[in-house]
Design brief:
Length: 155
Amino acid sequence: FEIMDSDSSGFLDRQACGRFQDLVAARCPMWDTDLWTYDDDGDRRLSKEDLNKFLTVSYRTLGKREFLAQMSLASELLRSEIDTEEHDEFADLRNNADCGCVVQLAEERGILRSQLARLCSHVQRRCKPEQWEDTLESSPTFGSRLTFESINAYQ
């Protein structure tokens, strides 16, 4: 939402939504819809809450796997169009000398204290403001809001 809200007004206008939809709708059909049906107060702007209503309906309609696939692709497409240094939400984790590499087997993975400290700072900075939720369906806390104190490696 924050990336699309280029003027930081807390709302998306038709132009901002149109640019985003033009970019992603051809490859992510869930975005090829009339978002303005979610503009409950009729102010011709979408708030974060309005957009979350659309995302909730899409999640329920598509199911978890398809929803997450389309959201991931839309995110990749959007990131490819923006100045990544200015809007890269993970730059604080990536841009560092001990950034690491991919280790396929979980039992062979480790983390440096400096990496763990950056990860904790990243989660603390984003978890509450972005209202992260537990999306693991088998989790006993599925659907509940996450906090820095309650988050674990599986969320």
